[in-house]
Structure formats: C-alpha cells, structure tokens
Amino acid sequence: MNIDSKTKIYGLIGHPVGHSLSPLIHNTAFLDQKLNCIYDCFDVLPENIKDAVFGIKALGIMGVNVTVPYKEMVIPYLDFISDEAKLIGAVNTIKNNDGRLEGYNTDASGFIESLLEQGVEIRGKNVVILGAGGAARAIAVAFSLNDVNSITIANRTEGKAYNLYKYIKEKFRTECKYTSLDELIDFDNIDILINATSVGMFPNVNATPVDEKIIRKAKFIYDLIYNPKETLFLRYAKKYGIKNSNGLNMLINQANNSFKIWFGKNFNKNLIVNVLRKKEFIK
Ligand code: ATR
After folding, report:
1. Catalytic residue at 50?
2. What CA–CA distance (Å, rounded) separates 153 from 180?
C-alpha cells in the first residue's frame, strides 16, 4: 500500500477499539480494489466525542464506523440520519458527503443478510432475543422490519427488557413480549434464538446467557459473538444438532454495507472470509 498526499482516510471511532477486525476487513478490501485509502482505529474518550465527530468534517476524513459506546451519542452532531438508523436509534456508519455528515445503520441489514445467506426463513417465525442493549435493539428492529410472527425479549435486568419491548410496541405492529432469562424454560416454539448479550465473550468463554435446557428447544441458534468463534452457547447448539451461526457473517455483511455506502459497490466477501480464516478468526 502506497500512502501519499492523496490517500483518503477512513476509520472506526469507539472506546475501546483495540480488538476490532474492521481495519483488517476494510484495508484488505481497499488493497483488493486498488483504492488509495486507509482505515485506522480512533479510540475516543467520552468527553471528546463531539470534537471527534466535528473533526471528521474539519480533517476531511471520508467515512467512519461507529461502535460502542457512541452509536447513539453521535446522532445530534450529524447533518442527516437515514430512516433505518432513526428507527434503530443508532448510527454505525458515517459518510462525509462533501462536508455533509450522513449517518446510517448497517447492523440490522447485515444481520438479516447473514440469516438469508444461511437459508434461514424469517417471515412468520417466533424469535427470542437474549439481551436488551444496543445490539438487541438493532436485531429487534431488523426482525420487525422483516415480518416475523413474534419477538420475545429476555434479559437479566427485566426493566431493560421492558424498555426494549415498549420501544418495539410503539414503532411496529409485531407481536412482542418480554421476560426474564430463567422464565424462558416455559417457552416452546422458539424458531430462532439469538444471543445479543456479551455473555460467553472472550475472556469469559465458559459462560452461557441461558441454561442448556432452554438452548435445546430452539430450531436455529445465533450468537452475535465472534470471539471465540465457538461460544459455549454454540457448543450446546452443536451438541443437540441445531443449525447455528456465530457473529462473523453479520460482521462481514455490516462492513460490506458500510463499504457500499462509502464507495457505491460491494467488496469481495469471499476474499475477506479467506483472510479472516487465514488469521484463524474463522474455522
Ligand atoms: P451492546 O450495545 O453490545 O448490546 P450493552 O448495551 O452493554 O451492549 O448490552 C449488553 C447486554 O448483555 C445487556 O442485555 C446485559 O444485560 P443487563 O441489561 O442486565 O445488563 C447483558 N449482559 C451482560 N453481562 C451479562 C451477564 N453476566 N448475564 C446476563 N446478561 C448479561
């Protein structure tokens, strides 16, 4: 890669950002498509987030991804928010369009694409989401936009499950319920069970958000976590022969959708998968 005075800058703003795979994904795509661009991480302290967003404009940075904890906080500083990002209440992609900062969300579309790629039917299905944070909200909105039959939000802190339930009820017609994690033992007919909590993530790899007895009831299991690539949650899915997915497909799809917003074209997903596999992020 030749970096010169014309190299365009892209990046990720978040806190922390040290373990992100986004630089590897986007720099591989830039090289592949011979784009004179570079992608770096910006670890921004909360008190500097407003300056950081204004800095995108001031420095002519062409685009950034936004991650935890800033996906909501950046919204007031942008000039335009897409309808989908408004519905989700979070922005994960900013495009600097000639000095106009545009906010988009590619998490929900990336998630749905990853299900479709794996042949999972969404319409009319009964979905249980574990967790009620930002990731759970993006997924709940994604399912609501794709005509599922019902969504159940299960969370350790029931008050937060209730807040997300209320959010979905206010914005969509989707049948929605909320519950504690333990009460899921009384639920049958779980078509898709998604872990949108951080339970099982490195380094706490021997934890699951719910008991094995709940996991075995599901017909498809999805863990948004990709480090480790096989969580205990997914090991239980395997044990019971349940089709399952980790979070890498969603990560690649959301990255590709950001790339599309910035450059108007897809990156080569197979190439990215191969690079991640070589680096042992994928089996
Ligand atoms: P994100 O934006 O990635 O969704 P978040 O907003 O911090 O991150 O949400 C993390 C989710 O993981 C929450 O649903 C959290 O549950 P609480 O609302 O009760 O905090 C869930 N979570 C984190 N640690 C957990 C644990 N040890 N057991 C159960 N749920 C946990």
Report:
1. no
2. 8
